[in-house]
Amino acid sequence: MNTQIYNTKPDSNDDQSSFALYAAARLVVQSYRPYLDRLGVTYPQYMVIRHLHRFGSQTVTQIADQLYLDAGTVTPILKRLEKRDWLTRERSGEDERMVFNRLTPNGHTLALEASQVSRAALNRGRMREDWVKPLVSEAKTLLKHLAA
User: Which residue ranges form the domains of the chain, and what is each CATH number?
Assistant: First the structure.
């Protein structure tokens, strides 16, 4: 079985796959900025709002794990969203250490407004859906391998 996944042999262009992935991710997030600015949210806030809208009430750990973030990054995001009345944070009656985060009606409204952001951002970059889908699929596979 060949365990070599990526050809690490340097070529004349000094290929650095990590840089290409980093730069592409940065530019994708940048393409979202005009749309998210109109909604008054940052990209990480957008991701949390969309996640809670899709999956419902979640703990900090659940959110962090699903979005590949650490809890120390997620907690301040949740506090900011709570201040803007987009989510509530409630302690579990069974275990006080667990805090469940759920969108308020205002948060759900925002999530619905934000549901078109991804398509608009991709259109802004003139990226066709048939071209992006395989990239997203490969990125998800990469995430699974790197997170394992």
Answer: 22-147 (1.10.10.10)
